[in-house]
Amino acid sequence: MPGYQTKQEHIAVRGVDDIVIRSLLDRQQFSDPLGDALAQGISSAAWPMFGLLWPSGAQLAARIALRPVTDGERILELGCGLALASLVGHRRGADMTASDCHPLAESFLLENLRLNELGPMKYRHGHWGGHAAAPARGELPASEMLDGRFQLIIGSDLLYERDDDGTLSRTIARHAAPGAEVWIVDPDRGNRAAFHRQMLAAGFSGREERLDRAAAGFQLAYKGRLLVYTAPAAL
Q1: Distance between CA atoms of residues 115 and 19, nearest Å
Q2: Domains plus CATH for the chain?
Q3: pLDDT tens-digit profile of 65-109?
Q4: Which of 11, 71, 155, 181 is the most exposed place for a label (fewest CB within 10 A)?
């Protein structure tokens, strides 16, 4: 790949066959020749973060692997990055939609679908930050933008920066079906309390579950929590 290097790994998720993931080689990779990422507010330091596998993403994938597949249930992953959780759900037959604002997220998803011999999966451009909602080189067709409502909205490691305006909680509320559930896996970031207040103010009820585990064998230690919210019956 011009401008950056990649690697390929087999990721074990209990309950499904291993998921093959093409990811960036390390955090030093960067390529934004046309300035598309910068137009989305993605700095050179933040650019590679979408293309790495993160512990919280693995936790989310493990949860999706255990969730019964329900006919008619639409599931949205926000800020999907490499979309490990979406790939797990898709492999199990769930109706998944992955979304991100990174210019390369979709191309990595398409490659990982191919590597796993999986059929097409929906991807939409989704951005809840303060920058343009479409890439710098023009408006995307409406069919490629995040739209609609979902019965389950998931995400991992989304609370990495302050969100005083509550744009993330408003995005979730905009796409949550009445009575929808929301799962956010968070590695104990400091912005969690403000996000929780914003979700409650939007009418959601919430609880949390510790996900801490000790290192064992090849399994790394993890400290964090699952935030679970339920949307009101009428939005």
Answers
A1: 9
A2: 6-230 (3.40.50.150)
A3: 999 999 999 999 999 999 999 999 999 999 999 999 999 999 999
A4: 71
